[in-house]
Design brief:
Elements (H helix, E strand, L loop, with lengths): L23 H11 L10 E5 L5 H9 L4 E5 L3 H13 L5 E4 L3 H5 L7 E7 L17 H8 L2 E11 L2 H13 L4 E3 L18 H8 L5 E7 L1
Parallel strand pairs: 1-2, 1-4, 2-3, 4-5
Antiparallel strand pairs: 5-7, 6-7
Length: 218
């Protein structure tokens, strides 16, 4: 069972600006049906961090049907949409953690993950909020110890500020990861994956080209 004693705070809203009402009790009951509880050494896992409206988790679940996708997202509106998609398409290999990803990362010290996706994490562009950014050297090292050999991390962002921050974090972890697409990081995400999330579309509509970082564990 996961601990609720967060080592890191969660920042930002958990609900959208819409005033549309929903049944919170029913929401938690549905989440509990698919809630991630603990690791099973017989299973292989993919970690999807900050899943937004669930597009990445659904994509991963369909393409890696033999893996368990752990979908980490605190955003209630997004989880509601994801849960509807799970039930509509009868997907049985997604487990939700509607809270802090550090709960999952600190619940084990064994190498369970074959893949980690982090698409469009909040860039927290203001300098005074920089400490809230998820992707740091310490964070990458924390994931590193849970990755199987040669496993990969995919990071996508359209924020120029966050790109510089991520580059610095990668450099500080150069003894632990190989940056596979260093010479091709500006290739379109669609050159790698046929997926369009809400935040991807928002970036394109704003004429920002998302960058994709692909790291492999050494």
């Amino acid at each position: 069972m996961l601990s609720s004693d967060y080592s890191k705070r969660l920042f930002g809203r958990t609900r959208g600006r819409s005033k549309k009402k929903f049944d919170l009790k029913k929401y938690h009951q549905t989440v509990n049906k698919y809630k991630f509880q603990k690791f099973d050494k017989k299973l292989d896992y993919i970690l999807d961090i900050g899943t937004g409206y669930g597009e990445t988790s659904i994509f991963l679940a369909k393409h890696f049907s033999d893996k368990i996708i752990i979908s980490c997202e605190k955003y209630i509106d997004g989880n509601i949409i994801l849960l509807k998609k799970i039930e509509k398409h009868k997907i049985n290999n997604i487990r939700l953690h509607n809270g802090n990803v550090y709960d999952v990362l600190e619940s084990t010290n064994k190498k369970y993950f074959e893949l980690v996706w982090i698409f469009f994490p909040d860039p927290w562009p203001k300098n005074r909020h920089a400490k809230r950014r998820l992707i740091t050297s310490d964070f990458l090292l924390k994931i590193h110890r849970l990755l199987k050999q040669d496993s990969k991390i995919y990071i996508a962002t359209d924020s120029s500020i966050y790109i510089r921050f991520i580059l610095n974090s990668i450099y500080n972890c150069k003894d632990f990861f190989t940056w596979l697409n260093q010479s091709e990081m500006n290739l379109h995400i669609k050159d790698y994956f046929d997926i369009e999330t809400k935040y991807y579309k928002k970036a394109i509509n704003s004429q920002r080209k998302p960058s994709l970082f692909i790291l492999r564990k050494l």
